């Protein structure tokens, strides 16, 4: 494809702070169908980039990084100096106890849901079965995120943000336009964060498979079955 097409696609992605490696963009354009309309080509490039590991697909020379000491708990407060794209590696609803989340996962495994005090058996393909997991995501949420340079840090949803919840996909990309970092924790506030979307399928599948055991591993050792 022509250099003009590559430039147009690159500009479209850059508007969302997505700066793919030249090799990634060249490979994408080479695999695209000839005569694909430019708007469709732009959206396809965006979709594929959001489904990729940004530590491998984004150009590190053009992609801003999180602060060098972002995880330093001795720094009371610092701010991001420029917009940064990160990907979600883990998310937890800390507005509910871990035990209650484990119990709900086990209900889903048995094909059940709770309506009031009544336990209802669900057909696997019913709408209630599909929506049950999204109903429990009340927040606030704690996320583990990673930038294009491989830096990982936890982030806390200080105010409710549309698109952040247990129904978001692992591997989803966030654009942190502005945010403060307090003692190694990024504070996420509405208006400062844009959920770009995306999903890394292998990560999402593994996260869902391991979620119950992960929650159990985070329970205080001395609880012996009590809520954390």
UniProtKB/TrEMBL annotation:
Segment forming the signal sequence: none
GO biological process, one term: double-strand break repair via homologous recombination
Family per record: Belongs to the RMI1 family.
PANTHER family xref list: RECQ-MEDIATED GENOME INSTABILITY PROTEIN 1 (PTHR14790:SF15), RECQ-MEDIATED GENOME INSTABILITY PROTEIN 1 RMI1 (PTHR14790)
Descriptive protein name: RecQ-mediated genome instability protein 1
Domain (RMI1 N-terminal) ranges: 14-57
One Gene Ontology cellular component: nuclear body
One Pfam family of this chain: RMI1_N_N
UniProt domain RecQ mediated genome instability protein 1 OB-fold: residue ranges: 67-211
């Amino acid at each position: 494809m022509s250099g003009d097409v590559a430039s147009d696609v690159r500009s479209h992605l850059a508007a969302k702070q997505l700066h793919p490696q030249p090799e990634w963009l060249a490979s994408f354009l080479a695999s695209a169908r000839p005569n694909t309309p430019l708007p469709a080509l732009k959206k396809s490039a965006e979709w594929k980039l959001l489904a990729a590991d940004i530590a491998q697909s984004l150009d590190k020379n053009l992609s801003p990084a999180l602060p060098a000491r972002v995880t330093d708990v001795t720094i009371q407060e610092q701010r991001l100096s420029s917009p940064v794209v990160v990907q979600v590696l883990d998310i937890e609803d800390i507005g509910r106890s871990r035990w209650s989340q484990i119990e709900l996962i086990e209900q889903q495994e048995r094909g059940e849901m709770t309506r009031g005090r009544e336990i209802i058996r669900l057909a696997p393909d019913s709408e209630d079965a599909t929506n049950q997991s999204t109903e429990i995501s009340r927040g606030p949420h704690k996320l583990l995120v990673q930038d294009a340079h491989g830096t990982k840090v936890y982030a806390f949803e200080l105010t409710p943000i549309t698109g952040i919840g247990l129904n978001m996909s692992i591997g989803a990309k966030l654009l942190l336009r502005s945010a403060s970092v307090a003692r190694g924790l990024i504070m996420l506030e509405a208006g400062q964060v844009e959920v770009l979307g995306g999903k890394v399928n292998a990560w999402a599948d593994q996260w869902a498979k391991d979620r119950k055991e992960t929650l159990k591993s985070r329970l205080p050792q001395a609880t012996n079955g009590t809520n954390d």
